[in-house]
Prior knowledge:
Layout: E1 10-13, E2 18-21, E3 29-34, H1 45-63, E4 67-72, H2 90-98, H3 102-119, H4 135-147, E5 151-154, E6 157-160, H5 162-168, H6 179-184, E7 201-206, E8 222-224, H7 228-238, E9 242-248, H8 252-267, E10 272-278, E11 281-283, E12 286-287, H9 298-303, H10 315-323, E13 331-333, H11 335-355, H12 368-380, H13 385-404, H14 411-428, H15 434-460, H16 464-476, E14 479-484, E15 487-492
Parallel strand pairs: 3-4, 3-9, 9-10, 11-13
Antiparallel strand pairs: 1-2, 5-6, 6-7, 7-8, 11-12, 14-15
Amino acid sequence: MQLYKNQPLQVHNSLTGKKEVFQPINEGHVGMYVCGPTVYSNVHLGNCRTFMSFDMIFRYLKHLGYKVRYVRNITDAGHLENDADEGEDKIAKKAKLEQIEPMEVVQRYTVDFHNTLQLFNLLPPSIEPTATGHIIEQIEIIKEILDKGFAYEINGSVYFDVQKFNLEHEYGKLSGRKLEDMIANTRELTAQSEKKNPQDFALWKKADSHHIMRWPSPWGDGFPGWHLECTAMSTKYLGETFDIHGGGMDLKFPHHECEIAQAEASNGKSPVNYWLHANMLTLNGKKMSKSTGNNVYPNEIFSGNNDVLSKAYAPAVVRFFMMQAHYSSILDLSDEALKASEKGYHRLMEAIGLLKTIPVSKTSDFDVRAWRQRCYDAMNDDFNTPILISVLFEGVKHINQLKEGSEKITLEDRKLLLETFHGFVHEVLGIESSVSSQNDSNALNGVLDLLIDLRKQARANKDFETSDKIRDELINLGIQLKDGKEGTTYSIN
């Protein structure tokens, strides 16, 4: 029997503003879409928190026995600065600055994004589509919206007609905004603007002669609006209506609001049943900002090379810190908070390590099944990871009492206790044991140093066959040796 059948899950739906029982469209299957990064710079820690939150949600849904199709896009056709309708897109701007091709920018920062998330032990999504790979689909949706009369073309650009849409639908229902209020609080359009109304947003923009990233369309060469790609990719891979759409709180308006409008305008269906939003990460009580210097990147935390923190922190510790707050609440990063998380993390890992060696008895003083259900109760309450962690630490307390001999446990209960810790700490929260990974890394380094030494000896003895064989076999394993003046070094591809 699948766990989801007797573990009813409740989620907070941003669309209704209520906590609701989660019921997927197709029993046992979940379709989930999460807005991915715009790859024009290194992924920052606030983004990482959002993706980590939805990785935890993905993991728990899988843990419950659901078959999950998780789609997370890559925005590689950069939307405009400040999400405006005019100006230069972010990727093209970076390409000009560095004097490289836009797709070089995309490649560089997509690799950085994947590498960073891998360090944080995020599972890859089921599908990771790109905006540039779905230009045709975006053009087709624009055609549908035009045919339905909810958009207009002017000078080679196409804009969504928000006021006309609002006559039959409700623009602003996700963010709780009223169109009348938006209009009342908006300045008059400038003379240069092509739009009928300030609230209208671009579906397709005509590319001027200097715009690098451009594609042919029925309206001339141009590029898609920012909001369109997510509508195209989510509905292509998950259907016109799917279960969960996630993203950062900052995307609720206008991005997600526009996604709803585009989908309803093109196919007449509300695209998503449950909207989930992760909240922001602050640093020392202030908003993270590159311009003010109140900012720290993941690699700076791992290396300790920053002006904000007193020492380096392992990715597993940072992930554990992130999980100590509910995904929908603001979380403040500080040196004190990370130090406390590091202590808690080590206590947790030590307790799990101890559990395997604790002697068993004929009776148990600790009701493991009741405690295990409380772990599920926490996660079933809108993925409440801070409550889960507090319940796990109750388990840690019992483990320490078992070690001291003040409590007893049966073999069966000890097995269940270990399974539960493994299931929730490693599988659901995605927290690795950095001790074991460090040991693995040390072992690998030791083996490679030995092979390099053996190869050196073989070359000294003019046994080039053995020397070449060691080098070639390592290349096959993705390890490249580099001979230099200072000796032989290696890189892992």
